[in-house]
Design a protein that fits this description.
This protein is an alpha/beta fold. It is built from eight helices and six strands; from the N terminus they run βαααααβββαββαα. The protein is flat.
């Protein structure tokens, strides 16, 4: 049975790609996601990045990043982590790489987009697409999009690239000159220079994902053991394929 999906968000796309079972629990059964250290740390990262770029240029320096991390990290419970050692390793890496990468930002003007959420109707997909632009620097010729993430798999990086290109083409009638994604647990910067061909590739990619979300066949098991170990729904998930076959997903 097909139930048409009317809206796709960045969050449910991420959830579905990482594990369709996680998407099922969050979107279909409306289960509340248990607190997860990655989610909490990403929230801290977003707050630090937002506050940093909101400061005057002369106040943007490594010590400002350190103070912002100290300010927002107090809300992250130690008990969410695997151990006390894990807790301190994560905060050390996040702090170190945020200081390194944010200190390299030399533009004296604040970004045009700073964690701004946009929505648009994608006619080719018959769906409303929602996306947050974390950091967007605009020029007369093009623009640059930046994201600061705790971590991201190759699949997630591919998703971000295509999602940003399709959305930018639809809303701004131009694609980014460059997309930068910094993953803070490993300190890597992933840089993409998208071409116009990525627009059609992205539309096709999103169409396939939409169909998989709408069809029960989209919930066939393809679990990643590493993803399962860190999933906040692991105590509830039975990982039984038949459980999803005859559900009405978007009624």
């Amino acid at each position: 049975m097909v139930n048409l999906l009317k809206t796709m968000t960045e969050e449910n796309l991420k959830s579905f790609i990482s594990c369709p079972y996680k998407f099922y629990y969050e979107t279909v059964e409306k289960k509340r996601r248990p607190l997860d250290w990655r989610q909490m740390v990403q929230h801290v990262v977003n707050q630090v990045v937002y506050s940093y770029f909101k400061q005057p240029a002369e106040q943007r320096h490594p010590m400002a990043v350190l103070k912002l991390v100290e300010q927002y990290w107090t809300k992250v419970p130690l008990g969410l982590f695997e151990s006390r050692t894990h807790y301190y390793m994560v905060v050390a890496k996040i702090t170190d790489y945020l200081m390194q990468y944010l200190n390299r930002e030399v533009n004296t003007q604040p970004p045009l987009f700073l964690f701004e959420k946009f929505k648009t109707q994608i006619e080719e997909l018959n769906i409303e697409l929602s996306l947050t632009f974390d950091v967007g620097e605009w020029s007369s010729s093009s623009f640059i999009v930046k994201k600061y993430l705790v971590e991201a798999s190759a699949e997630m990086l591919h998703l971000y690239q295509l999602l940003i290109v399709v959305f930018s083409d639809q809303v701004f009638k131009k694609i980014p000159e460059k997309i930068e994604v910094v993953t803070l647990l490993d300190g890597k910067k992933h840089v993409f220079y998208p071409s116009e061909e990525k627009v059609s590739e992205g539309l096709y990619y999103l169409q396939v994902i939409k169909q998989m979300m709408e069809e029960s066949t989209g919930f066939q098991k393809w679990s990643n053991e590493e993803e399962c170990r860190s999933c906040p729904f692991q105590t509830a998930c039975e990982r039984v394929e038949e459980k999803f076959v005859e559900k009405s997903y978007f009624s």
